[in-house]
Amino acid sequence: MSYDEPLRLPAAAIPDDCRDWTAGRAAGWSAALPSRWTFLRVRRSIAGAVTTFALCAGAWAAMLGGLWPFVAAGFAVYVLWVLARPELVWAGAPALLLGLAVQASSLPWAVTAVGAFVVVVSWAAVAVRLRARGAQLEQALEAAADGTAQVPDARAPVRRGRFLFPLGLVVLGLGALTGGTAHLWGTVDDRRGSWVMAFYLTGLGLTALVSAWLGRHRAVALRRAPAPVLRVLVRDDAQGTTEVYAADDLAAMRPLFTVELTSYDGESDEADEADEDEPDSADADAYAGTDAATGADEELERLLDAVDDGVPGPVREAVLFGAPFDGAELVVLSADEDPDQPPLTEWSAGPVRPLSPSAGVRRIAREKAREEQNRQLERQARESVVDRAPATVRRWRAGWLDWMAAALLVQWGVWLTWAGFTEAEPTSWKLALAAALGLYGAARVPVKLAWRITADRSGLWVTGLRGPRHVPWDDIRSVRRRSFELKLRWRDDDWSVAAPRWAWFERRRGLVHPYDALAAELSAMREDPALRPTGESTTPERGRPLWPLAVVLALAWAAVLVVWG
User: Which residue has the higher pLDDT, 223 or 507?
Assistant: First the structure.
């Protein structure tokens, strides 16, 4: 990983009395962070997995142990609050303890004791975490001293919560629908399980609405008065998340915290206002709309290209508006990556997520290891292509890992269907769900079993249900392996397929996942035309449409449901 001199922020953009947040001053802020056992920073995947496990355990207790559905669902929602929205725990913990106490006489004492223990311990951990926020705020204000300034673009529309608010309403609607149709299920256990899901969806919807309100409230509060300002360094990581560093950490060795940011496109809003005030001709409006849409598409493509590069962005000078602490809202004014562009103003799209000193060092170490692995794969791919005799056509197809993924998908679908059809006469709702599940599998399994990518001198041919699609070399944006997924992105579209992966075992044995090798080789061909195949592929080489196999699978599944139902 190599770092150049940080991109400089124009002196005129830096507020007066703005102090550098140096590593020495930031040390006190980091020391005020609570311990890891307070759930300070939990990965979203882990939070989702733990919440799902809590929901399954609660549904099992409701159907077999007699636990009230709203208590079972509330426990799962409470786990989500502990991990992702600790502000709500103050209301959730007492309510959950009250529910357990009221139903204690009808539950085994072990269930009540374990549930109460989990609630009390997690409540205490969240209390420690929330108490530490005050100490972090004090340290940040002390570092800023008297330096304050009005946030840039203070009159811009507040966009915080625009996504979560409608999402919360939709999820609430789904919860109401699930509860309203609970009586249609055939057995008592199914009806109780349906009510658990209804209460859970209701809790998720309310969580989204409250999160939208909190984010918007904090964003508005940040605009009302001059905010504390601190001079720092920022950098976008390979996934597009912004990392904030001390002002004197020029090598970007230890991030202080991360935050999701979104930019404010003031020019678009000003253009909209101008259109409203001074209506033009229909042709002018059409041209203006086309230009705006083109500019938006180009900006989106640029952002997607930056994320798909898999390489962190450059270190840039920036000014923080607002005191940073766990869960805080910020405005960041930073140097743009393009030196010809003015400073970039970005608003929080998510809360500040602090990193302890050790966690920050581990984060950078993992990033360096990923970059070194990517460079090694690229070298190997380039060497393999250069040393190999020029190929007329190059092809890749599904292998045993893809077949295993297809088998796992089929097994999962069969297991769910079997679990729902244990009764003598399946209900119409279960038959409808099983049919929908079968149609999804019929569309996905053929791709997993028989996908093919063919490269020739004109570009790539990618198989799909309707037949192979042609992607010219110049239209290809990126070929990356993300977690379990191989993703090919080109202009205005993309294609992906997933297969099992065990990163630890691969590193231990020195193995290369087939998706990594394919992505590295295609990336080398994309960047260097001399490495591309020299001939034109034939129709049989490009693969056939996969929809006939999908139709056969769908008909077979329909026949099974007819016999079974």
Answer: 223
